[in-house]
Amino acid sequence: MKNQAWPWSGPIVITELPADGDYDAAHFHLVDQWLYLGTIKNQHDAYEKLQQRYAEPQYFDLDAYKIQLRFLLKLRPKQLLIETLRLPAEEAS
Fold first, then answer.
1. Quick one: pLDDT band at residue 91, thresholds 50, 70, 90?
2. Pick from 27, 39, 50, 63: most CB atoms within 10 A?
């Protein structure tokens, strides 16, 4: 089985909005190279999770990959906002 290449330039933050569009009730998820890294509260939280990802071995989860592929590239519900996470080195340039 050949996997879909990661289509973003880096890690992404997925904002999951409730059906009523209330941004204050949104959930934020961090994904990098098809690895689900968990929910985050803010950018600092995202950077910490990325540091953990690089410090500890991560294993590819085929089931998680299939779910992400389906929702991010095929269905793309309008309640999902996808943004590439700007890393600190990118913000300085």
1. low
2. 50
